[in-house]
Amino acid sequence: MINWLEPLRSALREEFGDRPVVVALATVSLAAEPAGRHMICRGVGDDGRFTFTMDGRSEKATHLSAHASAECAIWLGRLRRQYRVSGRVTIESDAARREQTWRELSSATRSTFFGPPPGTPVVPGERRSRDANIDAQPGSFTVFHLVPDRVELLDLKTTPHDRTEWRRQTGWTALRIHP
Amino acid sequence: MINWLEPLRSALREEFGDRPVVVALATVSLAAEPAGRHMICRGVGDDGRFTFTMDGRSEKATHLSAHASAECAIWLGRLRRQYRVSGRVTIESDAARREQTWRELSSATRSTFFGPPPGTPVVPGERRSRDANIDAQPGSFTVFHLVPDRVELLDLKTTPHDRTEWRRQTGWTALRIHP
Question: What is the interface size between A and B, counted as CB pairs within 8 Å?
């Protein structure tokens, strides 16, 4: 029983509605430096896993293949709440699940996987592979999951602020902590 | 000449107006794990430094005292742009500048520095020091700066997306990179 899951999903629906769920994902670089960027969360499973997609040639893919853990921070500005979710990262190896996620992406998002490797310099005049067949899943397409070990909720609507954490190792027992 | 500075400040004004500038700050924990949380950026100086405040007893203070670097990711949802700013972190040692930042905080924010150490469990019935003198700066109040070494702008309004980076070591020369 994951007691933080339904309130979290409900808060995401209330905050984002039909818009993409934009979250900040922190990773650690090969040089052990902090890195963070915003990403679209593609779903939160019944098992509490957060699903994301990425280009396997990107910097964050390099980070995660060397150090498979992340923290995801979700700012809910309308609700004035923050969720933090940290744990280990697993790469989706099931072809059917990968294909399903691929089908759910917009064509605009799909087309981003067919360009040159992310982060490499743009060379003037180089050809962009814009007319690729974006129906077929490219090798660079990667689906990964953040499997939570700890979830934290900070509620700024109350004074003093309410802060609660849940940890897998304590069976997700809610613990109120100081903000 | 910091060529990314004025466009960035202008984008922050356009996106946030009078509201707090909420950003995601990534750090690395003592166990070399990624950590990320949202914070209010208190200003971007003429030298390009990003200023923040924190409780010196917080987890992120521990992270930064052991590993003084961070990446700040700023999602501008209305403009559909993301800035990423990474570099080293310095603690403000000038008492007058610290006092000035303290004066600029709301009383609600000031009062958060007088509670029990952040992250410690709430003990039922414990006294919250709500009636502290919130005019005087407490020892836990810390001002720090993120001194950028690299700045990146991702613009999602264009197709394909525009992505530009600037690095201190190349004199902040703009480099277009693949998204």
Answer: 136
